[in-house]
Amino acid sequence: MGCSFSGLNALYDAVNGGADVWINDNRFKIVRQLGEGGFAYVFLVREAFTAASGGGVSKKFKDPSHIAEDGTYAMKKVLIQNNDQLELVKEEIRVSALFSHPNLLPLLDHAIIPVKATPEQPWTHEAYLLFPVHLDGTLLDNSTTMKSKKQFFSTSDVLHIFRQLCAGLKHLHSLDPPYAHNDVKPGNVLLTHRKGQPPLAVLMDFGSARPAKRQIRSRSEALQLQEWASEHVSAPFRAPELWDCPSQIDIDERTDIWSLGCTLFAIMYGVSPFEYALGESGGSLQLAIMNGQIKWPSATGGGGVPKPPYPDALHQFVSWMLQPQPTVRPLIDDIIIHVDKFLFLHKTLILYHFPFFFFGSPFGPFLIQIGWSNNFIHCSLKILIFMFLL
């Protein structure tokens, strides 16, 4: 079964009127529009149970955590104008079926229906994709709001958000064959704020995901890859080898590592590390990326820095990922090892600088009774840090 409306005018009428939408045998009522871009529209919908639905869309879910208690989901509608666009949507659906991971947005259901094109409505198909809803918005939305208020994520939240993105990418990179997301950026990261916990981070939009490994053996193949990247990979987060591809190169998952490094910078400072070039007279985004020219914010700059500033080790971590030569860039497993060390050391150093966390805890009287002291804890933590860094 298709959808109860078709066409742009009907689309907006349906949003305002709360019309029903059918995705296969399940009916949804549109609550409101969440966003749009190009020929795609995203809506908040609520499932309307019917006798024909036989328990609703949730019966299709492999993971029960995807079931919305209030019946609300995000529905993406894509207006497809030609066969190329149709194949792209089909590829996104196919790739989404390959993975299941808590930090990758799952496709819960989908339908593609043919429609009659008219001069006013030139699309030939409409695609409906159903996802879990994350109403706290994207990392880009959150960063934009925080930047306007001169707020920053804490170092702990930066590390936890980044670690979750690493986990999602590791899952993609571990498929057989490995897949690259190809468009890792703050606008493709959904956040859900949780009380007393770091935000949940979920990577979305797999329309550009492709097998990661590509052999380029001619100039024509290199130019084809550059043209594809210009259409599918966001410029401020695009790896150097996708800007100016050599005629002899093996492309692999490390195109994602470059984008991941840019995204870590953006988690901290709200922008890509190379967007400064767009605001400079005669500046070139491509040249800044090709040369790996990172411009770190300063306390005197317009963007500002958090107080206290992020550790220098985080800056070095970003630089490690943003090496213009892809062969010297780390792989995702290397990054996860190091970010886990960062998380361990961050917790440990908090205890080192604030040992009253020990003595102010329910274990405090016991620690005092057995003769532990601040100096003893300091020494113990120093040993732990030294052993962990070996």
Automatic annotation (TrEMBL):
Catalytic reaction annotation: L-threonyl-[protein] + ATP = O-phospho-L-threonyl-[protein] + ADP + H(+); L-seryl-[protein] + ATP = O-phospho-L-seryl-[protein] + ADP + H(+)
Enzyme class: transferase
One GO cellular component term: cytoplasm
Signal sequence coordinates: none
E.C. number: 2.7.11.1
Highest taxon listed in the record's lineage: Eukaryota
SMART domains according to UniProt: S_TKc
InterPro entries, per database record: Kinase-like_dom_sf, Prot_kinase_dom, Ser/Thr-specific_kinases, Ser/Thr_kinase_AS
Gene Ontology molecular function: ATP binding; protein serine/threonine kinase activity
Gene3D superfamilies cross-referenced by the UniProt entry: Transferase(Phosphotransferase) domain 1 (1.10.510.10)
Protein keywords: ATP-binding, Kinase, Nucleotide-binding, Serine/threonine-protein kinase, Transferase
Ranges for domain Protein kinase: 28-343
Protein name: non-specific serine/threonine protein kinase
Organism: Lactuca virosa
Organism lineage: Eukaryota, Viridiplantae, Streptophyta, Embryophyta, Tracheophyta
